[in-house]
Design goal:
The chain is α/β, with parallel strands linked by helices. α1 packs antiparallel against α2, α17 crosses α21 and α18 crosses α20. The chain starts with a helix and ends with a strand. The longest helix has about 35 residues. It has four domains: about 90 residues; about 170 residues, P-loop containing nucleotide triphosphate hydrolases (Rossmann fold, 3-Layer(aba) Sandwich); about 60 residues, Helicase, Ruva Protein, domain 3, CATH 1.10.8; about 130 residues, Peptidase M41 (Methane Monooxygenase Hydroxylase, Chain G, domain 1, Up-down Bundle). The N terminus is likely disordered. The strands form three sheets. It has a six-stranded mixed beta sheet with strand order 1-3-4-5-2-6, with helices on both faces. A two-stranded parallel sheet has the order 7-8. β3, α9 and β4 form a beta-alpha-beta unit.
Amino acid sequence: MFKKLNNEDTNKNLKLMMLSASVLIALFLYTLIKSDSAIQGGSYYIGIGFLLVLLLISFYLQKYKEKIQKIVPKNKYQGDNFEQAVVNSDLEQNQYIQNENINPISSNITFKDVAGISSVKQELEEVVDFLNNPQKYIKYNVSLPKGVLLVGPPGVGKTLIAKAVAGEANVPFFYQSGASFVQIYVGMGAKRVKELFQVAKAHAPSIIFIDEIDAIGKTRGIGSNEEREATLNELLTQMDGFDSNSGVMVIAATNKIEILDDALLRAGRFDRRVFLKLPSLSDRKKIIELYTKAKNINIDIEELAHNTSGFNSASIATLINEALLNMIKNKNKTISEEDIAYAKQKVQYGKHELSIMCNEEKEVLATYQAAKAFFTKQKVALFDEGIINDDCLYPSKSKLIEQIKFNLAGSIALEVIKKEQYVVFKSEINEAYKIASNMKDEYKMIRDANELIVNIKEELKKDINANIQEILSLKQTLIKEEVIVF
């Protein structure tokens, strides 16, 4: 294409030379005829001769242009070299497309390969059933969510669960990380999103899984970035552009749901949310049994489950793997307690990145959570962070004060029972002060936020002292079972 354009430009230039020379000769002849007396010397005749030579050269070049083009070296921005330069530039800007082809993969992972997800398995089974038997729902005009958002701390198995859904449904699985959409060239991320959805639709029924979606899904206006916002807008458009019966399910994962744009979370997009937590005692036991299956072991699984408080599923997998490596290094054939003890020293786990949660730390956390359970009368697990608040459209003053109390209960219980202040979950303390601040500045319900907090703390101290034995009993239940159910 570029070569053709170059030849056309050459023809135009030669014709322009011939036309210019002809016009100038005509002007000289006209002047010669009309103003012969004004001509002095041979200047005009020299000029006419030069133009005639120029005209002859133009005719010659036009006639033998192809031979001349082969002899004259081409400029790096002409002909084939120009074409190559443009192609190289295009390749540079689209390198990510060539290096990251969007191809589906077939997942051989099923729910049997993922332990400790009994609490979320039921919700995900609906997704699997819809992908396997869409007509079962379509005939009743039932629409399942277009998007499922997996929310939880790192290492709890969000990606593994998404692969298990694809494996159970036996459909193509498209994996992309949020960071893969972030490009230095404006518009490339949006193009990538569009291509992803086009390919997924072509392979329907299928699953699109976007890991760490917060990389592109942050609330617009926060750390504004033109490319990221263009990519997010394209994602929103694509999720609106296919109906819920298209056979394409979008699953995304994040551990920062609070920073996601509201448009992503509204009905019709990621309107189903599955919250994953650190595995409980029973979950850890199942995970250990899964990872030690078909292996020779000489360990107490029940005790190991108790001693791995705070481990996520990825950490448990790493623990077992390190123990196996140590077993091989020692030329043994059975995983022993010594191998597990060695592996524990190498594994970091949980949000606090502790090498192991000692009994004292576990008691502090259990006391904190027991107080929350006592006041909320809700199910509380040892590693739960945050209070489950009812989204009330018109919250009353007493309801807001109750929320503050729930968020401060654990800290005040430690202060009363342990006779010392502790910091366990900073998010709950911040939430309590945020509610009090809103009551003063936005709702105009109180005059002084700090005064309200002080009064609530004093009230909590009285209630905890009056019910200290019941709270201590709940603490023992948490240490033993890691969960309290009312």
